[in-house]
Amino acid sequence: MAVRESQFLFSPDSGIYETLLDLREKAFSIHGFKANSESLQSDPTLFIQLHEKMINELDSWDGLTSKIQKAMASHLNFHS
User: Fold this and answer.
1) What predicted TM-score, i.e. pTM, was given to this entire model?
2) What digits encode the pLDDT tens for the residues 17-74?
3) Could you give the CA distance from residue 61 to residue 7 in angstroms, rounded to a whole number?
4) 58 with 6: CB under 8 angstroms?
5) 3-state secondary structure string, the chain?
6) CB–CB of 41/47 below 8 Å?
7) Using CA atoms, how far apart are residues 32 and 24, in angstroms rounded to an integer?
8) What span, in angstroms and rounded, lies between the C-alpha atoms of 42 and 40?
9) What does residue 34 show for φ and ψ, rounded to 5 degrees?
């Protein structure tokens, strides 16, 4: 994800940079849990806590992708 680059390509008012940061953070959290879930099973409390966090991150993913699509719509319209 080109998060840093978006800071220079889009105006701060667009919210694109911040939304991409949120998406990246959630992606790291989701991937981190999936990549380490087997080793986390030795600590059920931590496993449950991080699993719930991953589920919350997944639940918010669609809303953030819709938000970024709307914010970038004028930049991605190839038919104009």
Assistant:
1) 0.80
2) 999 999 999 999 999 999 999 999 899 999 999 999 999 999 999 899 999 999 988 8
3) 21
4) no
5) CCHHHHHHHCCHHHCHHHHHHHHHHHHHHHHHHHHHHHHHCCCHHHHHHHHHHHHHHHHHHHHHHHHHHHHHHHHHCCCC
6) yes
7) 12
8) 5
9) -65, -40
